[in-house]
Amino acid sequence: MSTRRVDGYLPLEDYGALGDGRTVALSGSDGSIDWLCVPNLDSPPLFDRLLDPDEGGRFSITPSEPFDVEQRYRPNSNVFETVFTTASGRAKMTESINSGTAGRLPWVELARRIDGLDGIVRFDIEMRPGRRAHTASPYQSHIGKHSIFHVGDVLGLFLHSEGVEVERRDDAVAGSLSVGPGQREVVAVVAGEGEPLVVPPINEIDERIDLSDAEWRTWAERIAYRGDRRAEFIRSVLALKLLLFSPSGAIAAAATTSLPEGIGGAKNYDYRYAWVRDAGYTIKAFLAAGAQPEAKAAFTWLLKRLAEHGDRVCYTLGGDLVPEVTEIDVPGYRGSRPVRTGNGATAQSQHGVYGDIFETAARFVDCGNILDSSSAETLSHLADRCADSWRRKDSGIWELEQAEHYTMSKVSCWQALARAVELADQGQLPTTCRDRWARERDRIESWIGENCWSDQKRAFVLHPGTERLDASLALMVRFGFDGPERLVSTMDAIDRELGAGPWHYRYSDVSEEEGCFLACTFWMIEARFLLGQRAQAEEMLAKLDDTIGRGVGILSEMVDPRNGAFLGNLPQGLSHLAHVMALDGLVAASECVR
């Protein structure tokens, strides 16, 4: 494909994601790294051209003449390849945020290898850090042949092989390189924050690209999936792995902030935090994939945060409460403002927290694992709070400003207490309050049946007193709520009223503000599989092949139904984990037929 920027921006589907378990970079189809936070995924960005096309930081290695491009991940790996074709030749760029033989490196090592394939290809290079959240302007210094940059407490190095020509400026490094058949050049950025910095030999950085690739492939080969869509399944699990913050075990909702849910709109949020909902669903996806160590690390982290802070909605990746929202004075993606750090959801009440953590605990135990006494105590207290609070209004799964008795929130409370009773019966939780949990579970089920069903719509609705629908209610099927007749009818109503092409909006009357939410469509597919509607589910999944194949396997939060363009933050964990669970449902449905 050919690639070009419009007003300085690339389409979001033109980015691949690189990561090392600590941070994530986005590499564009024109050879520009437009997003990288150092040292951590939720640190201020070092490269932020994604949100500021003119003044933002970038690390670009781009052909000097017009080009076509092919992008792909190496099989079963998060090492990324781009082939550039110009009138004068072809060259391949291979990119990685490297790891070492002992796992994640104690510094960020962004490596970029350029191999000549045919003819001669010349590349222009620019490495310019961005202003660190507008608190510090970058500047360059030099020690010997090394170009050093300073941005606040971040210290970095621009390193390169001998054939790279470099021009040093006060605020950037510029240069060029040329490669022919069999020729290789390597360019890298090594960075850390508030710490001495190792200067690795460039040949070792080059070698670690292949070492990192081998580590990714070894990990991916152990992923359990028996279906026909293994490559898709592994690609989404690999994307989820990028969002697992290895220093703590937290799972970030996404790797970016403020990418708009609707171009020019104000629904631009910072998703570089760990939501209980997203983490819980991701843990279940890891368990479905047989990735037990990742699931255990994330589950342990989540339980400790809930024990420490109570039933909060989200936390920082280090385990603290998420800071208040701050607006940053940059243009935003395609002029969509405001650009934000922090997130207001941390102060909300969301009953979904209860269902998410208990569904995770139940799945963890179902896989043959055991809860320790401290975790059991934490879960018992959460079940008690759920039994106490389910009658109250909350902000719901969609974090809406208007508190209501949202149907999905009540379902989540029912789900939590149902799983708590099951865990108590299995000997995993104390049985002291087991009967009370069972009574409240049954009361919630009756309340939902009496108040949340619409005879007019033949569906469960967003909340009592409205005829609006909510696509997240597809999860009722996975949770085992109600009987199949009402659930099938609800799925049909969601398809009719919230469907737009192969995708779905989150809830009624939101189409003017945002795109279609990818996770909702995957939830609908999973629900159809679980309801025994295999042919319908497979047809829906096939219609999404163009969406999944539009980029390189990295999914955003939303899709514009008018043109299929990606919207919202990416890689979006909720989209990938819902994809994993839909494909897992396909396998389960196939095995039931056999």
From TrEMBL:
<keyword id="KW-0378">Hydrolase</keyword>
<dbReference type="Pfam" id="PF19291">
    <property type="entry name" value="TREH_N"/>
</dbReference>
<dbReference type="InterPro" id="IPR008928">
    <property type="entry name" value="6-hairpin_glycosidase_sf"/>
</dbReference>
<feature type="domain" description="GH15-like">
    <location>
        <begin position="231"/>
        <end position="527"/>
    </location>
</feature>
<feature type="domain" description="Trehalase-like N-terminal">
    <location>
        <begin position="11"/>
        <end position="86"/>
    </location>
</feature>
<dbReference type="InterPro" id="IPR045582">
    <property type="entry name" value="Trehalase-like_N"/>
</dbReference>
<dbReference type="InterPro" id="IPR011613">
    <property type="entry name" value="GH15-like"/>
</dbReference>
<protein>
    <submittedName>
        <fullName>Glycoside hydrolase family 15 protein</fullName>
    </submittedName>
</protein>
<dbReference type="Pfam" id="PF00723">
    <property type="entry name" value="Glyco_hydro_15"/>
</dbReference>
<dbReference type="GO" id="GO:0016787">
    <property type="term" value="F:hydrolase activity"/>
</dbReference>
<dbReference type="InterPro" id="IPR012341">
    <property type="entry name" value="6hp_glycosidase-like_sf"/>
</dbReference>
